[in-house]
Amino acid sequence: MPTPQDRATDWNAVSDDDFRQAIADFIATRVPPGLRHLNRRPRWAEVRDWYMTLSRNGWLVPGWPVEWGGKGLSPSKMLVYVEELERGGAPRVMDQGLMNLGPVLIARGSDEQRRRFLPKIISGEHLWCQGYSEPNAGSDLASLRTEARLEGDEFIVNGQKIWTSVAFDANHMFALVRTDKTVKKQAGISFLLIDMRQPGVTVRPIRNIAGHEELCEVFLDNVRTPRTNLVGALNDGWQIAKTLLGFERIWSGSPRQSTIALIRLERLAQATGKMNDPVFAARFDRLAMDVLDGASAYERFAQIMRTGGSFGSEVSVLKIWATETCQRVTELMVEAADDLGTLTGEVPIDDETMDILYPFLDCRAFTIYGGSSQVQRNILAKSVLALPA
Ligand SMILES: Cc1cc2nc3c(=O)[nH]c(=O)nc-3n(C[C@H](O)[C@H](O)[C@H](O)COP(=O)(O)OP(=O)(O)OC[C@H]3O[C@@H](n4cnc5c(N)ncnc54)[C@H](O)[C@@H]3O)c2cc1C
C-alpha cells in the first residue's frame, strides 16, 4: 500500500479502503497529541506546525489540480480525506484559503492571480478570512453595503464586515463589496482581495456564547487594494461567490457531529443510570434513529458523488437534519446531566470528566452559518417542492 509521503501515487486509483487507511495512519502519527479533538478552534500559532506538516507532505490542498500544488483528488476521495481528518481529531487549520479562495481563483481567477496567490496559501504566508457578512446582510447577503470605489489603479474600500471567522489571525481577506449602487443589488457586487496589513483595517474579536473568541468584526476605513486584486469582472462578484457552492453542500450535512454527540450522551446516560429509565431510554432511541436516518441520507448523496453524479437543491435536507439532530442530542445531554448540565468546563461523571455544556452551546451556530435552517427550508420549499413564494 502506498504511504501518504509517496508523491508519485495516483490516489484516485487507490481503493477507498486503502486510501482511508493511509490517511488515518498519517493523522495518527503526525497530528501533535495536544491538538487532537480540541473543543475549540485553535489559534494560528498553535496549528502552524501541523499546517506546515500537511503542506510539506502535499496534503494541505489535495483537491486542487496538480499544476497548482494539489493532488487532483476526486470529490469522493476528498470526502474520505475530510472524514478521516475529523475522525482522527485533527485540529482545524486556517482553511479559508484552502477550501474557498484557492478553488475560486483556480476556477475564476486570472493566471497572474493564481501565480501570485496560490503558492502563498500553500506556504502559509497568506492567511485568508472570508469577508462576506455584514450587519443587516447575512442571509440577505446581496444587501451588503461595504463600498469599493475605483481611483486610478486602486480600489478604496469603506465599510464593515461581521462574523468574520478568525480574522485576528488572517493577513488577507477576500470580500464581497458594492461597486455599483444604481443596479439590482446582486448585479452591483464585486469580489476583491484585500491585504489586511495596512492602516484602516481594524479587527475586533466577538466573544461567543461559549466564551470563545473566534468571530470578529472587521472595519475597513479607506483601505486600498490594487485593481489587479479584483477577481473576475467588475460587478460579477455574486457569480464568483456562487462558485464556492458544491463540496460544502454535502459536507455541512455530515452525520459525524451528531454521531459523536450521541456516543457521549450514551456514555453519560449509562454513567448516571439515566439509561435505566424507560422514558429516557425511549427518547435516546428516537434520537439514535434520527442520527441513523441522517447517516443513511448522507450516504445516499455521498454515493451519488462517488459515482460522478450531481444533485440539486434537495441536498439542503442534509444540513437541516444533521445540524438540528445534533442540537437535539446535546439538549438531551444537558438535561440528562441534571445540575451538572449547567456548569461550564469539565465536570466529573462517574470515574471520568466530561464537558456537557460546550457541545450544547457550540452547535447553536451550526443552524446559522452556511445558510440557516430557515433559509435551507425556503430553498427546499421553492426549488424542490415548487411551493408558491
Ligand atoms: C460560527 C459562525 C462563523 C461564521 N463565519 C463567517 C465568516 O467567516 N465570514 C462571513 O462572511 N460570515 C460568517 N458567518 C456569518 C453567517 O454567514 C451569517 O451569520 C448567516 O448568513 C446568517 O446571517 P445573520 O447572522 O445576519 O442572520 P440573519 O440573516 O439576520 O437571520 C436572522 C434569523 O432570521 C432568519 N431569516 C433570515 N432571512 C429569512 C428568510 N428569508 N426566511 C425565513 N427566515 C429568515 C434566519 O434563519 C435567522 O434565524 C459566520 C456565522 C457563524 C455563526
What's the structural blueprint in terms of helices and strands?
Layout: H1 16-30, H2 44-56, H3 75-87, H4 96-108, H5 111-122, E1 128-131, E2 147-151, E3 154-162, E4 172-178, E5 189-195, E6 201-207, E7 213-226, E8 230-231, H6 237-242, H7 247-251, H8 256-272, H9 278-306, H10 316-336, E9 346-349, E10 352-355, H11 357-362, H12 373-384
Parallel strand pairs: 1-4
Antiparallel strand pairs: 2-3, 3-7, 4-5, 5-8, 6-7, 9-10
Structural write-up:
The protein is an alpha+beta fold. It is built from twelve helices and ten strands. The chain has three domains: 1-92, Butyryl-Coa Dehydrogenase, subunit A, domain 1, CATH 1.10.540; 128-241, Butyryl-CoA Dehydrogenase, subunit A, domain 2 (Beta Barrel), CATH 2.40.110.10; 247-384, Up-down Bundle (Butyryl-CoA Dehydrogenase, subunit A, domain 3), CATH 1.20.140. A hairpin with a 2-residue loop joins strand 2 (147-151) and strand 3. Helix 8 runs antiparallel to helix 9. The longest helix is centred in the last third of the chain and has 29 residues, at 278-306. The protein starts with 15 loop residues before the first helix and ends in a 5-residue tail after the last helix. The relative contact order is 0.09. The model has no long low-confidence stretch (mean pLDDT 93). The site of flavin-adenine dinucleotide has 18 residues, from strand 1 and helix 12.
